[in-house]
Specification:
Shape: globular
Structural class: alpha/beta
Strand content: 5-15%
Order of helices and strands: EHEHHEEHEHEHEHEHHHHHEHEHEHEE
Number of helices: 15
Distance between the termini: 51 Å
Strand order of the largest sheet: 3-2-1-4-5-6-7-8
Radius of gyration: 23 Å
CATH topology of the largest domain: Rossmann fold
CATH architecture of the largest domain: 3-Layer(aba) Sandwich
CATH superfamily of the largest domain: NAD(P)-binding Rossmann-like Domain
Number of domains: 3
CATH class of the largest domain: Alpha Beta
Bound molecules: ligand SAJ
Length: 406
C-alpha cells in the first residue's frame, strides 16, 4: 500500500492516478476539512479531468484520512515555500511530514519526496530526521526524490504522459520506485541520484523563468521605443533555433515565481542571470500599473473605479491565485494610489470579487477601461463585448482597434 502524504495540487492527482491504476492508496492530510471534503465525494480544486479521475479512484478503493499509515511506501508531496528574505527553500513541511512518517513506518520502508526542493535539501534536512529516529538510511529506510512535473490546467494528461526523474541512493530502489510510477506514467522514467534529481527540477523552472524574463525585457525595450514586441517575437521565432516565450503581466504560481530563488539564495554570487531575471518578472505588475496610469491619463479617466482588471488567477483557466500578478498589482496599487480598481474573474468566487461582479456583463457595465490580465477562454470567446471600451491587453488576445498592449 502507498501512503501519499499531502493531498494538495500534486499529492491529490498523484494519489488518484495511482489508485485508478490498481495501486492500493491511502491519502493522508493534516487538514481535516480537506479530508472531510474528499470523503464527502468532492474534489478540493478545479482541474480538467480531476473529477472523473477522482470517481475512478474512489471506485478502486482509495481512502482519505488525517492519520499516517503503517506501510512500506510513502510519497511526501507537501508544500515547500521559500523564505522571502533569505530566498532559501523552507523545508519545514517536508521535515514535519518525514518526522511523522518515522513515528509509524516499519523498517525497510521507502520514503519518496515529491515536493520541490533545492539541491542538498535532502542531505541537510531529511537525512538527519531519519537518523535521529534511529534508522539507518539505505538499510532501514530507503530515500528517493521523485519531483513532479505537471502543469496546472493540464495535470491529468501530463501525469500520464510526461517523462519523469527518480533520484535514489541505491539504483535498485530507484528501479523499484520506477515500477510504481510506471503503473500509470507512459513517459520515460530516468533513474539517477538524489542531488541530480533535486537540481533538475529547480533548473527546469529556472529555465522557463529566465526565458519569460527575456520576453518581458523585450516588451519593455519595445514599449520604450514604440515597437511591436509581439510581431518582433513572431518573426524571430521563424528562425529555426529561436523560440522566444511571451511577455506578460508578471509570473505567478508556486513554481516558476518561487523555485529559481532557491538557486539565488544558495548561490548568491553565482546566480546572476537568474537573480536579474526574477527581478524583471517580479517588476512586471508595477510596469502594468504604470501603463494603466498612463492610459487613464490619456483618456481623461481620473476615477480608478472606472478601471477593471479582468483575471485574478496566476494563469488562464485555473482557479489558483497563488503569487498572481493581479494580486501583486493590487497590493502595489494600494501603496501608490487610492484603492478602487475593480476586479473580476470567472474562476474566483470568494470575497476578493465583490458579489455584483460574478458576471462578466455586469463587470463591464461599470467600467470604461478593461485591463486583460489573464487569458481565460471566457474572455477570448467574448472579445466583441469589449467593443466601445478602452482595452489594455497584457496578454495579446484582443485585436479590436485602438487596443493598448504591454
Ligand atoms: N508565463 C508568461 N509567459 C509565457 C509563459 C508563462 O508570462 O510565455 C507566465 C504565466 O502566465 C504564469 C507563469 O508564467 O503566470 C507560470 O506559468 P506556466 O504555465 O509557465 O507554469 P506553472 O507555474 O503553472 O508550472 C510550471 C511548469 N514548469 C515548466 O514548464 C518548466 C510545470 O511543468 C511544473 O510542474 C510546475 O511549474 C511546478 O510545479 O514546478
Amino acid at each position: 500500500m502507498v501512503n501519499v502524504i499531502g493531498l494538495g495540487y500534486i499529492g491529490l492527482p498523484t494519489a488518484l492516478m495511482m489508485a485508478s491504476h490498481g495501486v492500493e492508496v491511502v491519502g493522508t492530510d493534516y487538514n481535516k476539512k480537506l479530508v472531510d471534503t474528499l470523503n464527502a465525494g468532492k474534489t478540493t480544486f478545479k482541474e480538467k479531468g480531476l473529477d472523473e479521475l477522482f470517481n475512478e479512484a474512489v471506485k478502486s478503493g482509495i481512502k482519505f484520512t488525517t492519520e499516517y499509515q503503517v506501510t512500506d511506501t510513502y510519497i511526501v508531496s507537501v508544500p515547500t515555500p521559500y523564505d522571502k528574505f533569505s530566498k532559501k527553500v523552507d523545508a519545514c513541511y517536508v521535515v514535519d511530514a518525514v518526522k511523522a512518517v518515522m513515528n509509524v513506518c516499519p523498517k525497510g520502508a521507502t520514503v519518496v519526496i515529491e515536493s520541490t526542493i533545492s539541491p542538498r535539501t535532502i542531505d541537510k534536512f531529511v537525512r538527519p530526521v531519519i537518523s535521529e529516529n534511529g534508522f539507518e538510511i539505505g538499510k532501514d529506510i530507503n530515500l528517493v526524490h521523485a519531483p513532479e512535473r505537471i502543469i496546472p490546467g493540464n495535470m491529468v494528461y501530463e501525469l500520464l504522459h510526461n517523462n519523469r526523474t527518480i533520484g535514489a541512493d541505491d539504483a535498485a530502489i530507484g528501479e523499484k520506485v520506477k515500477v510504481l510510477y510506471a503503473s500509470f506514467c507512459q513517459g520515460e522514467i530516468v533513474v539517477t541520484d538524489i542531488r541530480t534529481a533535486e537540481m533538475t527540477k529547480v533548473v527546469e523552472n529556472t529555465f522557463r523563468a529566465v526565458n519569460i524574463a527575456f520576453a518581458n525585457e523585450l516588451a519593455k525595450i519595445c514599449r520604450h521605443d514604440n515597437m511591436d514586441v509581439y510581431e518582433i517575437i513572431r518573426i524571430c521565432n521563424m528562425h529555426p533555433r529561436v523560440n522566444i516565450l511571451q511577455p506578460g503581466p508578471g509570473v505567478g504560481g508556486h513554481c516558476i515565481s518561487v523555485d529559481p530563488w532557491f538557486l539565488v539564495g544558495d548561490y548568491p554570487r553565482l546566480a546572476k542571470v537568474i537573480d536579474e531575471s526574477m527581478k524583471t518578472n517580479d517588476g512586471m505588475p508595477d510596469f502594468v500599473l504604470e501603463r494603466i496610469y498612463e492610459i487613464m491619463k490619456e483618456n481623461n479617466i481620473s476615477d480608478p473605479g472606472r478601471v477593471g482588471l479582468y483575471g485574478l488567477t496566476y494563469k488562464e483557466n485555473v482557479d489558483d491565485m497563488r503569487e498572481s500578478p493581479t494580486l501583486q498589482l493590487l497590493e502595489s496599487q494600494e501603496k501608490h494610489l487610492a484603492k478602487g480598481l475593480k476586479v473580476y474573474d470567472p474562476f474566483i468566487c470568494d470575497d476578493v470579487v465583490p458579489k455584483q461582479y460574478h458576471d462578466l456583463d455586469k463587470f463591464l457595465e461599470d467600467i470604461d477601461l478593461v485591463v486583460i490580465m489573464v487569458k481565460h477562454n471566457e474572455i477570448k470567446e467574448n472579445i466583441d463585448k469589449l467593443n466601445g471600451k478602452i482595452v489594455f491587453d497584457t496578454q495579446n488576445i484582443c485585436n479590436l482597434n485602438g487596443t493598448y498592449k504591454l
